[in-house]
Amino acid sequence: MTAVPEPRGDVAVLVPAAGLGLRLGPGAPKALRPLAGEPLLVHAVRRLAAAPSVGTIVVAAPPEGESDVRRMLAPVAPVTVVPGGATRQESVAAALAAVPAPLEIVLVHDAARALTPPALIEAVAAAVRAGHDAVIPVLPVVDTIKEVDARERVVGTVDRSGLRAVQTPQGFRRSLLAAAHGAAVDALTDDAGLVEELGVPVACVPGSEWALKITRPVDLAFAEALLRMQPAAGPHPRPA
User: Fold this and answer.
1) The CATH number of domain 11-233 is 3.30.70.3270
2) Which residues does 229 contact at the CB level (< 8 Å), separation at least 6?
3) Looking at residues 102-126, what average pLDDT do you find?
4) For the chain, how long is the longest CA-to-CA vector?
5) Rg of the Cα atoms in the chain
6) Mean predicted confidence (pLDDT) in 8-19
7) Domain chopping of the chain, boundaries
8) Exposure pattern of 177-187 as b/e (b: 16+ CB <10 Å)?
9) pLDDT at 233
10) Region 128-137 average pLDDT
11) What are the angstrom distances between the C-alpha of 87 and each of 16, 67, 160, 188?
């Protein structure tokens, strides 16, 4: 039996995993969908546990499947499992409330980014540790971006040189993340957006092609192809 890695770092990672993931089609909640024979959540937690900085992992699970998630992750890593909420923000807030008091660096990570390499997790944590209050991993936008109107007619071409695609984990000082959630009015797609609403600068670090978000069936197929490449690429590819 493979030994469960012991937590050792100064970072807590929150994993909101209660969403249904309807774009993947009917079935179990997205975090529990299989990738190469294992749930996405198992892949994600295994990589989080391999990052030396990570000392605590808190998963916000589907409320009706909380005990199942706890049993599923027990052989993978020591994990705290809490019931998630109806929205992503509610799930993140529930997970944040379960973080032990001494830990002041908190990362928020999507289970759907199941192949995120430990090197990227370390890079985000290191940037917060170095003094940034909020940090996100990003990749340059490679597609041409068009702005369209309500009738789906092009009204302009957006200059992509200043655009970035955002990934997770996103890193924060714990007090800032708590304040951002406490002040939230609108539902946003990421926690950095809540921090931006407070007027706090958000720093960027290079992201990783392996940290793709698995949202559609084609993403699952691509992720499985990446896993087949892993022996040649190494188990923990570095950020781009």
Assistant:
1) no
2) none
3) 96
4) 59
5) 18
6) 90
7) 11-233
8) bbbbbeebeee
9) 42
10) 97
11) 9, 20, 30, 10
